[in-house]
Amino acid sequence: MHMLPSHQHDAVLPPSFSPAEMLRRRRALDGVLEAAGVDHVVIYGTNRSGSAVQWLTGWPVTREALVVHSLPPFSAPDALLVHFFNHVPQARRMAVEADVRWAGPEVSVAAVEELERRGALKNRVGVIGALPVRVHDALRESARSVVDLSAAYNGLRLRKSPEELDWLRHAAELTDLSCAALRDGAAPGCTEYELAAMVESAYLPLGGTNYIHYFSMTSMQNPDQCVPSQWPSGRRLSAGDVLSCELSTSYGVDYPGQLLRSFTVGADATDLYLEMHAVADAALSRVESVLAPGVVAETVVEAASVIEDAGFTTVDDLVHGLGGGYLQPVFGSRSRTLEPLPTMPFEEGMTVVVQPNVTTVDGRAGVQTGELMEVTADGCVRLHGFPRGMGRIG
Fold it and tell me: Is residue 197 within a helix (H) or strand (E), and if so which, with residue range?
């Protein structure tokens, strides 16, 4: 198992990054503010969503959280305003470099009061995150103008720091364990609910958390599902089925691995599934061979065109960034491109999921393969070690 630095194994607190890493993030955000000509930014998250709050302070959003960050020479630390009141004590233990306070009965009022305390209301104010209308309106009524910096923040998350890569490698290992538990424990008669329990039991004792676990199960002789579902059901595995999965285990909240695999259940693969998986394996290998700094999406799509050449298509994205959110570049295969291909090149330090999810054109049958990869100086490397190829269970 990949070992993390000792400060990430505190017996009392969840995993945390080093003070040097947290300072790097604040300085990177300062650069965004300077480029936009603003001195203060409001960062918002709610209902366990809002990655910038955690990235900047170390506090994973629970019910609602808002951060006010200011450029030097303003000397006060970041203000972290937290809902609910009973969440404040742990937030103070985790966001040790922030001034953590209860947000009060209305976070928009607390945000304006904090900006006023910092002398920011006569200036332009930046915002990051999906602000609710009430918060946005309060800022627009109080500040000179509001500038959306969310896209610039997302740009900061594309390339991972060495510490972030350590977390992602560890998350990939936890994800591999979850897939091994699925492979070794699943059998005819299992429901999707039971598959989820198998997957989670592999990493919960080791400090991992669920990011996603999606499953599909369908008869190979009479298939009716080509891609995993986002919500599980009580459907049961049967001999002769194919089981496909998309598994992501996080270390921390926002640092997941991602592994996609397919297994036959108590039977050999039919000719159709053998062919689909062979095409998917070929596409994965071809993309892996070209993925490198400076390469653009068009080159990757061309590498994966063996899918369409074989008479198949895809349903899910072919490639997407992961680690700090669902990040650019995001694009599908040649027959599934939903919008113009991104022109941004891949860069060293990006982490991306390559997932040639080959399906029949009628959408009745499909296979999954793929995983999280790191773009390195001279190509790409796998972050996962789970065996490739179609497996067999039961």
Answer: helix 192-203
